[in-house]
Amino acid sequence: MKPLPAGARVTLRRDVTEITASWRRVTPKGAPMRVSRELVHKDSEESMLIATMDEVSPDEYLARLRATPPVVQAADTRTTAVSSPTLLGLEITRQLGLLMGHRAGGIPLDWAFLLNELSFQGSDAFALGIAANAAAMTASVRISSARVRAGRCDEMTAFAVFEVDHDVVAEGSGSFRCVPRRTYSALRRRQLRAPHPRPSNGALAEVSVHGLDLQAHLGWPSANRLIFDHEVDHVPGLLFAQAGIEAHEHLTGTPPQEVALECPRFAEIGEVVSISARRSGHQVSTAADQAHERVAQVRCA
Question: A-factor biosynthesis hotdog domain location, by residue (predicted)?
Fold first, then answer.
């Protein structure tokens, strides 16, 4: 992918522009526009982490977070990773990427976004801000690179900088492939009927720790509305991030502030996913394999 040329514009689909027009009809002049569930692919308000957004330039927006992310309160608190500030930062970054894909990238609302990579680097200030006063936090987000065909992105990377009182407290980045809904549905039709695994308390099950190494199976914490707020036809990428965070906590005794997730292929529901992790200093690398193929890699520090 290449950076967008200076002054480059993409074609906004009618469904995206209609949402924008509706916003402007009900929003006072000069006020930021409220983000709708459709633009961040969420079924419930409780799992939306972005409150408003405002256009700074054609490919850069300024977003403000929700006052108190309700999903933190609604999630299963028996595992620390569910309400991990770093996991929240990853999901905010993912939602910002979807938002930018639709608004700045002209991607139709019914297209699917396939996650390639997702990363987040937080801080103590971010953790404090997201827990105590998220509404005071802003995120400047832009499309840093994109592949544009026929005036529309089909692959893109979004980069976000989080600030509190003009101080940078975190950074995040997300890379996605963008696929027409009809094409995606044809590819995944059979998986919609796959039975879901038995619910678990966390992302790791049957954990075994030996020195610097961890072995486990991937769990299915369906009570975590941050991840499971809608029907899924594959294992969500954010679940692998949660597994990496939990592995880091098991091996180091502390939560990570940095997470980098790579998803090279789909992981299918109903098939065993093996988790292996190894600690090296303050870093933990976690691998997820299904049917002898790597489906995700997570690096935490």
Answer: 39-178, 213-291
Domains of the chain: 14-184 (3.10.129.10), 186-300 (3.10.129.10)
In angstroms, the Cα distances linking 129 to 21, 58, 88, 301 are 32, 29, 12, 20
> Could you tell me if 256 and 248 are in contact, meaning their C-beta atoms sit under 8 angstroms apart?
yes
Residues 6+ apart with CB under 8 A from 265: 293, 294, 295
Helices (H), the chain: 14-26, 70-74, 85-103, 124-132, 181-188, 237-252
Three-class SS state of 23: helix
pLDDT in tens, 94-152: 999 999 988 888 888 889 899 999 999 999 999 999 988 899 999 999 988 888 777 66
- Which pair of structure tokens corresponds to residue 251? 């091996």
Tens-place pLDDT, residues 34-52: 898 889 998 888 788 999 9
The token pair at 126 is 């971010």
Q: Token pair 């880091």 is at which residue?
A: 248
- 107 vs 143: CA distance, rounded Å: 13
pTM of the full predicted structure? 0.85
Q: What whole-number distance in Å separates Cα of residue 125 and Cα of residue 269?
A: 37
Joined together, the tokens standing for residue 297 give 């890699």
% of the chain at pLDDT higher than 90: 52
User: Nearest Cα to 47, choosing from 19, 66, 32, 34?
Assistant: 66
